[in-house]
Amino acid sequence: MTLSFAPSSDTSLPLHVIAQPDLEGWLQEQPQHVQSWVAANGFSAALGQSQLLPDKNGAAEMALAGYGTEAKRARKRFPLAAAALSLPEGTYHIASGLPSDLLEVECLGWLLAGYAFDRYAIQSGGSAALVAPDGVDAARIEAMAQAEALTRDLVNTPASDMGPAQMQQAVESMADEFGATCSTVLGDTLLDQNFPMIHTVGRAADQAPRLIELNWGNSGPKLTLVGKGVCFDTGGLNLKPGASMGLMKKDMGGAANVLGLAHMIMALDLPVQLRVLIPAVENAVAGNAFRPGDILTSRKGLTVEINNTDAEGRLVLADALALADEGEPDLVISMATLTGAARVAVGPDLAPFYTDDESCATALSQSAKASADPVWRLPFHAPYEAMIEPGIADLDNAPSGGFAGSITAALFLRRFVGSCRYVHFDIYAWQPSTEPGHSKGGLGQGPRAILNALPEMLGL
């Protein structure tokens, strides 16, 4: 799906964005027929309201978009997108009412309002097209919108059509689009090349487990992205109840978000050496499924006691992170739908992240608001390290007790990264209900904040 600005046109309608406290003042500057039409149609500039205004001959002359109050806008990530959805089909240009520092975010929200997942049934998003305002980087905004659409499409596609093989095809298609290279370690070859935990988690499924790698760029800092690609998670022998399994097509949301971020980096031609690693598996139930009580040896040589087969994401990420670390990158970022504990802590809208690097933490926190991509730092709390050390093995994949589940998972992953700078995101990748710019379903969480923070994090 292409989410793009409309070409500039003499026929596009001027759109005036009006906050509720400003409506009276705006009307006083308008001719009487405009004042009368607005009053007759009950336009109050409430958030999400829109109104076409005719000229004296009845033809559309301008459009109004309600921008509500500051308090109402604070509760929406893309306030203007609400009005964009209510405008009739046509092409519009913003004539007044939006401060310059909000143009990029609101234009992005407008484009995202056009998204619809229409693979299996006729669906449509907003039909109102927008001309890029002067002063915005239209190509950058379009790259962000198109990357978000890619992420949403991947997450929304059910596991019947988005297994490890289809995930590999998606990465290969992206590599072809941007002139990157792509390679895959498949099936039992994972054992030959020392990725034992990726193999163990995925060996019970019909589609073979695999490690997919994309490389792009020949100069600049080395950036490695690692995304959890568990294309469906039954929970394994620790089988999930039905209510918990219903959304597990989204357990590859980390991989989908990493690919969205990679899309933006390559589309914008950032001066980095990009490496993307996606361990793609299905955590299935069969006679050869791994079991509670098993002890696995990882690529790094650390042993892991399996106390819950439903804590499989950290296992596949561990082997991929060990490989990432061997390349001595300047920065490693992992993204995963890893723990329910993160959702309990911050809910579905915030993307919690972990890092020991203060400059990375500051850059991400500062860029998140400007990107309309909220993130929140959680701690690598060292005193909890003992919770992931079972005694019988080096590490425990599912510590008992139930406390600090997201933190202990992040501490587990950190054991597989050496001295390079590391940031881990524990995301949800799902929008529970439709909001302006966000349809219900798959969601990008973190990539735009990361994109805007990369210049600071990598010295670009």
Mean pLDDT, all residues: 96
Name the CATH class of the largest domain. Alpha Beta
Poorly predicted segments: none
Please give the radius of gyration in angstroms: 24 Å
Helix content: 25-40%
Distance between the termini: 30 Å
Oligomer: single chain
> CATH H-level name of the largest domain... which superfamily?
Zn peptidases
Task: Profile the largest sheet.
Answer: 9 strands, mixed
CATH architecture of the largest domain: 3-Layer(aba) Sandwich
DSSP summary: helix tally: 16
As for the number of domains, it is 2
What's the number of extended β-strand segments?
A: 19
- Tell me the β content: 15-25%
The third-level CATH topology of the largest domain is Aminopeptidase
Identify the overall geometry: elongated
Structural class: alpha/beta
